[in-house]
Write a structure and sequence with these properties.
Layout lengths: L1 H27 L1 E11 L4 E9 L2 E5 L4 E11 L5 H13 L3 E4 L2 E4 L5 H4 L2 E9 L3 E9 L2 E4 L5 E5 L4 E4 L5 E5 L4 E6 L3 E5 L4 E5 L5 E5 L4 E4 L6 E7 L4 E3 L3 E3 L7 E6 L4 E7 L4 E3 L1
Parallel strand pairs: 2-6, 2-8, 3-7, 3-9, 8-10, 9-11, 10-12, 11-13, 12-14, 13-15, 14-16, 15-17, 16-22, 17-23, 18-22, 19-23
Antiparallel strand pairs: 1-4, 4-7, 5-6, 18-21, 20-21
Length: 275
């Protein structure tokens, strides 16, 4: 019995040592880095940003310049500590930034061995008159204060867009969407997560979530055509509405103040509230 106990202890120690060794190996194969670039532009900017895994934050600043800050993280079991550090230094020296006049592309990596093993998060300051397309495989996005249009998508992560004057498209596989101060059209899609939208729409708003609540705040005197439906939950409208068809707890269709732009809201499971 005593020998068996000793064997159990030895096995436990071996497993613990193996786990610690693996953790050390993982830690040793990672490296960090950063870069910063300032690009001169004139007139409206066309910005395209992509990253496999990382956060994207874009906000408006001064006219005539684009400021890019990147945070690099390299981690892969195939890299030794020296190799991971070399990769980080390579990306620092030649970050994935391309400029052709006022067209700027950020995030494209031609080196395929780096593409799946390097994570870069971006903080970008652009002139107000900027068109934005941004994509990340996994990570949050925040875009504020640009004229737009804005097209933002992520496989997994939240999206926040605020004070955009043209149309906005926001898509996430899993995560919440918040769109504030929107005056153009809005299309928001999430597989799982809540949607919050506010502004004074001049074009159609189309909001849909597979699972999650939807909250919409519009001006007190807004006029619109509402089509709201939830598979499981309730629909609440704090505006005077002329209902089309039968009034149901989970579905409301009708005109607010005589009708206007279309407001289509869908959720598979969750409540809908229009204020």
């Amino acid at each position: 019995m005593k020998v068996g106990s000793q064997r159990v202890v030895l096995v436990g120690l071996a497993l613990a040592m193996a786990c610690a060794s693996a953790q050390r190996a993982n830690a040793q194969s990672s490296a960090d880095g950063s870069f910063q670039r300032t690009l001169n532009v004139s007139g409206p900017v066309d910005l395209d940003v992509s990253t496999g895994s990382g956060r994207i934050a874009i906000r408006s600043g001064e006219s005539g310049r684009v400021e890019v800050r990147g945070s690099i993280y390299v981690r892969d079991g195939f890299f030794s500590l020296r190799d991971a550090d070399r990769v980080a230094r390579d990306v620092e020296a030649a970050p994935p930034i391309e400029q052709t006049g006022n067209t700027i592309r950020i995030g494209r990596m031609d080196n395929t061995s780096y593409r799946d093993r390097v994570s870069i998060s971006y903080e970008i300051v652009v002139p107000p008159n900027t068109v934005v397309r941004s994509r990340t495989g996994s990570g949050s996005q925040e875009i504020t204060g640009v004229d737009g249009p804005v097209d933002a998508s992520t496989g997994s992560g939240r999206i926040r867009v605020a004070n955009v004057r043209a149309n906005v498209s926001a898509n996430t596989g899993s995560g919440s969407i918040a769109a504030e101060g929107i005056t153009g059209g809005l299309r928001a899609r999430t597989g799982s997560g809540s949607i919050t939208a506010g502004g004074d729409p001049k074009d159609r708003w189309d909001l849909s979530t597979g699972s999650g609540s939807v909250f919409v705040r519009l001006p007190q005197q807004a006029a619109f055509n509402l089509d709201a439906h939830t598979g499981s939950g309730s629909v609440t409208v704090d505006h005077p509405i002329t209902v089309s068809g039968r009034l149901r707890r989970n579905e409301v269709t009708g005109q607010v103040r005589g009708g206007g732009v279309a407001l289509d809201v869908r959720t598979g499971s969750g409540s809908i509230r229009i204020e």
